[in-house]
Amino acid sequence: MNCNEYPQSKWVAPTDRRPVFQRMHGILELAREVESALGAHAANAGRPSIQLVAKLRRLNKALAGYTFKPHFPDPPRFFLIWRSLDPERVIPSEHRAVLSLLKLLELKLLYRVRSCSQCTTWFFARYRHGKFCKTVCQQKHYALSPEFKDGRRSYMREYRRKHGY
Ligand SMILES: [Zn+2]
Questions:
Q1: Exposure string (b/e) for 126-143, b if CB count within 10 Å is 16 or more?
Q2: Model pTM score
Q3: Cα 92 to averaged position of ligand 1 atoms, centre (Å)
Q4: How many angstroms separate the CA atoms of 81 and 85, rounded?
């Protein structure tokens, strides 16, 4: 949800309290619960649990306000897009965020949507253990770690000793 309505400089974090983000966080959390319950169900291979059915119903209820219609844009591009049936109520970036979230849930990749360990922005982890949205955040995080500070202190002590400060 970092598009037209929200400038790129204002990244979206879980702490964002605007209603549109609160709605998306709610759907994301529900979808995560469904993804994890589906994983447990697949492992048991039995009848779906009451909890799984209840979670799916809650997710369906949260998604009921989003309505789409399939549409193929004019040539030369040829691909399917889903247009909102209620563009007055649902802003384009919320519409796209819901579609992306559903796609990731379908691909069982929702667990890769995380909050950055440094700046808390939401991001899609390319790697299974990815914890940071960008390299700069990773470097900042380690620069603040006690191990890095100790290492830096020893290095500076040695540097000062060598250069006679
Ligand atoms: Zn970050």
A1: eeeeeebbeeebbeebee
A2: 0.70
A3: 24
A4: 13
The b/e string for 82-95 (b: 16+ C-beta within 10 A; e otherwise) is bebeeeeebbebbb
**pLDDT single digits (tens) 107-131:** 988 889 888 988 888 889 998 899 9
Angle at 25 between CA 62 and CA 135, to 5 degrees: 145
Distance (Å) from CA 7 to ligand 1 centroid: 17
What is the CA(63)–ligand 1 centre distance, in A? 28
Query: How many whole angstroms from 127 Cα to the centroid of ligand 1?
Result: 15
pLDDT in tens, 142-161: 888 777 777 778 888 888 88
- Between the CA of 59 and the centroid of ligand 1 the distance, in Å, is 28
> How far, in Å, is the centroid of ligand 1 from the Cα of 155?
28
- First-last CA distance in the chain: 51
Q: 13 C-alpha to center of ligand 1: Å?
A: 9
Distance in Å, CA 43 to ligand 1 centroid: 34
